[in-house]
Amino acid sequence: MSQPDFHQILGIPPSASAAEIKRAFKRLAMRWHPDRNADPQAHEQFRLAREAFEHLSGLRETDPPVDTEEKPPARRPKGDERRLDVDLDLKEAAFGGIVTVTLEGRATCTTCEGSGRRSYGRTTMCGACHGSGRVRSDGGLKSCPSCKGKGYFTDNRCPDCEGRGWNPLDRQLAVSIPPAMMPGEELRVAGQGGPAPEDGEPGDLYLVLHARPHPLFRLEGRDIHVDLPVSIFRVLAGGVVDVPTLSGVQEALLPESSTAGEIRLPGAGFPARGRRHAGDLVAHLQVHYPRFLSKEQKALLDMADQVLHQQLDDQSPALARWRDTLKQNR
After folding, report:
1. What's the 3-state SS for 176-239?
2. Could you give the CA distance from residue 11 to residue 24 in angstroms, rounded to a whole number?
3. Cα distance between residue 255 and residue 235, in whole Å
C-alpha cells in the first residue's frame, strides 16, 4: 500500500519547517478534534492529521523536539446538559425535517429588574411575642427567638418573582433533524441547555429521538417491514405487484407459485448514514382468497385444473403420486 502524502494532509509544502508543521497540525486539531466536532468523520480526520504530524516531526532530527501529545484546548465553564425526548414520524427520521420543541426558560423580572427585592418592605407583627419582642421563659422574660427581639418581620422579597429575580418563560425552538438518524440516537444542539455560569457558556441540549408507530411500516434494525396483501391468483400466476416504501410505491416482480412468503427490496429500507449501509424493505405476503367465485372465474379455474391434470407428472409430482395411489386402491 502506498504511503499517504503527509504534507498534503497537513496542507503544507515539502520544505515546511518544524514550526510550520506544528502550526498546521494545531489548526487541523482545533477543527477535527472529536471533542469539538460532532461530524462522524472527525475522528478519522484527526487521526490522519496526528499521524502526519508525528511522521514529519520525526524526519527532522535537527529541529528542536516538539511535544506531539495532543493537549485539549482550555475550556470555559459550561452550563448543565439537558435532554429532551422528541417523537418523530418514521419518514421524518428517515429523511430529516424540522421539529419545534418547547424549552423551559427564564425572563428577568421587570418589577424588581432582576434583584429579587422591592424598594419598600412589608412589615408583619411577630405572632410568637405579639409584637413585644420578648417572651416569658423560666419565670422571666427573654428576647423572642422568632423575630430576634424586633417584634416584627420585614419582607423585602419582590412579590412578582417571590425573590428569585426571574420568572419562568417557556420558549419555542425549531431544530433541523438530519436525515437517517435512528430512533434512540441523540442530536446535540449546542448552547441550548442549562444557563451559562459566571464567565462561562450555556450548556448543550440533547434531543433523544423516538419514532412514533407507523400504520404500515415496522423498523427492525435498518430494515423496514411491511405486510403486503395479495390475491391467491397473483401468487399462482406471479407478475408485478406494487410495494409501498418510505419513498413511495415501487414495483416488484413476484415469481409465479412463489412459496417464499416475502419479497425483499435491497436498499429500500432505512437510508444509509455515514458508514451504515441502507437497510432493505421486506414485504411479507398476506395471501387472500376471494369470498366467492363468479361463473367466469369458475370456468377458467376448471379449465386450468383440467390442463394441470394432463401435465401432472411435470407440474405437480405430489398430485401425480396421489393419482397413482388412488388407482392402486380402487
Report:
1. EECCCCCCCCEEEECCCCCCCCCCCECCCEEEEEEECCCCCEEEECCEEEEEEEEEHHHHHHCE
2. 7
3. 8
Reduced to 3 states (helix: H, G, I; strand: E, B; else coil), residue 80 is: coil
Q: CATH number of the domain at 82-101+174-211, out of 2.60.40.2250, 2.60.260.20, 3.40.50.920, 3.20.20.140?
A: 2.60.260.20
User: Structure pTM?
Assistant: 0.58
Q: Which residues pair with 134 in a beta bridge?
A: 143
At 64-119, the pLDDT tens digits run 444 545 556 667 788 888 899 999 999 999 999 999 998 887 788 888 888 888 77
Q: Which residue has the cell 514529519?
A: 56
Residues 230 and 285: their CA atoms lie apart, in Å, by 7
**CATH of segment(s) 6-59:** 1.10.287.110
Other Cβ atoms within 10 Å of 91 Cβ, number: 14
